[in-house]
Amino acid sequence: MGKARIVGIGMDYSATSKAALKWVIDNLKKEDDRIIIIHVASPKADPTNKQLFENTGSPLIPLDEFREINVSKHYGLNPDKEVLNMLDTVSKVKNVTVVAKVYWGDAREKLCDAVEHLKLDTLVVGSRGLGVLKR
């Protein structure tokens, strides 16, 4: 076995971000990998502790804590049960560590920041759903 990888997944609970998560679970998993679910909330959102973490993003939130409704609401999020179930399954069945991190601001910039700050080996995001002509 090689070095465990750190895989980031941009998550906004859209169908394409769920597909990206499923793709990671099915294709990129190695024993002891770490999955970081990266949420980028609107800069206009004003959760309780946004001021503490606005520039650096939230601390890493373990999956067990992230499942708790009070914790996710504390960061201004409303997690999707389907996503949480997929994360629970990969965590338990495939021995993968799952954590979440929340940023506030422009998703393009914050996802690039996440790659640098979290030392991600891979970042997976869903498509925007635009066809060839609209792109």
Automatic annotation (TrEMBL):
One Pfam family, short name:
Usp
Q: Which SUPFAM superfamilies match?
A: Adenine nucleotide alpha hydrolases-like
Q: Which Gene3D superfamilies match?
A: HUPs
**Domain of life of the source:** Eukaryota
**Domain UspA intervals:** 5-135
Query: What is the protein name given in its UniProt record?
Result: UspA domain-containing protein
Q: Which species does the entry assign this protein to?
A: Nicotiana attenuata
